[in-house]
Amino acid sequence: MHAGHLCSREVVTIGPDETLIQAAHLMRQHHVGLLVVGQEAKRNDGLRVAGVLTDRDIVTAVVAREADIRSLRVSDVMTRNPLLVAESSSLDSVLYQMREAGVRRVPVVGFRNELIGILSLDDVLDEMARMLVDVAGAIRKGRRLEHTARPDNP
User: Alpha-carbon distance 7 to 94, whole Å?
Assistant: First the structure.
């Protein structure tokens, strides 16, 4: 399984020059805790990831420091050079990288480094749950087939 297979292709993005108030509104409107900060690439190669902004970034940089949110831009608070994973990266590799970086969500990029999607631990857990349902179904079906093929009463 690869990152490109599991990632959500519906990514909420924002520009680095937007205000943190606009970022917070986008997060609330789309019910997300992370925005990908994007810049248009040259030659129409798609959106390039300049950084990421989380709801936690806003809280720790603004609220905890009692800063004036109206004076701050996304670029003032965003995480620059975030972990990015290739859409062809294996799930094992991505999970290892996410654990090492201490992140729960990661942008997924294509072979020209263009934004493809976002992969979250929730996406991984959803896939694991689907796989466990398949495993449980196979076990139940095997038991039914065994019971049909070899009934208790000869």
Answer: 11
